[in-house]
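One-letter codes give the sequence; each number marks local geometry. A record appears below:


***
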Amino acid sequence: MAEEKATKEEQKKMEERALSVFASEKKEDLTALVIAFALAIFVIIAFK
């Protein structure tokens, strides 16, 4: 029973860590998208 509880706690920690990683990756992806969009607008304006 104690081993099962420890396993569930470890699994919960791993799930929380994975969600944290996904959240930070999503933020990085959004930042990259905004930068790429701004750069594209700048290039369009610069070459008009």
In short: The chain is about 95% helix and 0% strand.
